[in-house]
Amino acid sequence: MKVAATNQALALLLRIFVSMGAFVEVGALTFSIGAGARFGYSLVWVIVIGTVGIAVYCEISGRIAAVRNEPLFALIRQRDGFRSGLLTLVAVTSANALTCAAQIGAVAMLWQLLSGWPYRLLVLLALIFFILAVWFTPKEWIERVFGLLGLMMIVFVTVAVSLHPRWSQVAATALPNLPPFKTRRDGLLYGYYAIALLGSILLPYKTYFRASAAIEHKRKVSHIVPDRVTWIVGFGLGSLLPVSLLLIGADFFAPRQIEPQLPGGAALATASLFGIAGMLIAVGGMFFAFAGAAIEMALSGAYNVAQFLGWRWGKLGTPRSAARFAVSWIALLCAAALIVLTGLDPARIVECSVILSVVILPFTYFPLVVIGADRRIMGDRASGKLIKALGWLYFMLITLAALAVIPLFILTRVGKG
What is the Cα–Cα distance from 387 to 55, expressed in whole angstroms? Predict the structure, then answer.
């Protein structure tokens, strides 16, 4: 009994660390540092709100998977019909492709920082790397390797602490606040960064990927509570990374009047304080975090398409055993790479991927909230009063964000003020 309890505790701890290491992708990194560089500590509250929101939606999706043992998009099609479900599928897949492109471009930029090789060549090499990694690596090891090695980004936490932030101000900005604005445009820019930062944390692939993974790993009703602990603790610890990046933006980049646009710029702070070793650790952590996110986005998109169309799906078998599923994730990776190869500014791809994600968030999470609370589908495991209230509260919040983000995107000239 003691051995079994110890193994369960270790498995839970491992899943918490994996969730923590997979919390930040290139959009969250870019907007966290940018928010700090422009507005100091004042947007910490957005990270807090976003972390609670993604934990709530992952709890709902994981609970649905454990209770029903049916794919989410199959349930969405059954409940909402083909046309309405197809709208959700197209919205989510489009966001997956663009956010995956942002990760591929970010990985290529990190490799270029280390090698000096041509950017487009490195994009193609990154595409080949991702296809081979997904094809040959068991799914469980994909999550563990990229999630755990992504924890090297903890170096940013060390950097943030070494800069001696004003902790009383950091704590105060964990609650919603509005700093004084010199001009009306500053207020618009603040709103733009708040919504973009929220969207980068609430990216929809996280919930759908984890729901599909729960079915593949045969998670049962008995796993609902430990899964809930995983989301709360793992994402809670993971939120320390974007908070630290925001503090670095405020205390390192802002005094130097620098606003880093690309991932390599984030490593500048670690190199300044810890030399080449610190920079290499930061680049390594970003690589595994971004690469893990790209793979999860590609797989999530393939899960959604296969589940909606009733194809055989899953990563636990060989690619040939679910051929159309394999073609789907390869196609999504190739489409993402083509977006990068068009020559679009990598920083613009990151920004547009997050903005598109914000626009489609209501389409993504509405079915999730409805199904999770439907007693005809979930029985006595339907969302309780707290989760139901939080689910609808966040749905209203993301709907307002989706309505506001395009006007703010235009009025702020793509976040340039």
Answer: 10
Sequence-distant (6+) residues with CB within 8 A of 144 are 14, 18
**Which helix (H) or strand (E) segment is 298 a member of?**
helix 263-309
Listing DSSP states for 170-217 in one string gives HHHTTS------SSHHHHHHHHHHHHHHHHHHS-THHHHHHHHHHHHT
Q: Return the pLDDT at 4.
A: 62
Determine how many CB atoms are found less than 10 A away from the CB of residue 247.
26
pTM, full prediction? 0.94
CA 221 to chain CA centroid, Å, is 26
Q: Which residue type sits at 65? A: A
Closest Cα to residue 357, out of 95, 102, 104, 105?
95
Residue 219's pLDDT is 80
Q: Domains of the chain (ranges plus CATH)?
A: 17-411 (1.20.1740.10)
327-333 contacts, C-beta under 8 A, 24 or more apart:
328/301, 328/302, 329/134, 329/298, 329/299, 329/301, 329/302, 330/131, 332/93, 332/96, 332/97, 332/100, 332/297, 332/298, 332/301, 332/302, 333/100, 333/104, 333/127, 333/130, 333/131, 333/134, 333/294, 333/298
Length of the chain: 417
The per-residue pLDDT of the chain, averaged, comes to: 91
Longest Cα separation, the chain: 64
What confidence score (pLDDT) does residue 3 get?
59
Distance in angstroms (rounded) separating the CA atoms of residues 280 and 92 = 34
Residue from 50, 415, 101, 62 nearest 243 by CA: 50
Q: What angle do CA 20, 249, 169 make, to 5 degrees?
A: 85
User: Which residues of the chain have a pLDDT value below 70?
Assistant: 1-5, 7, 415-417
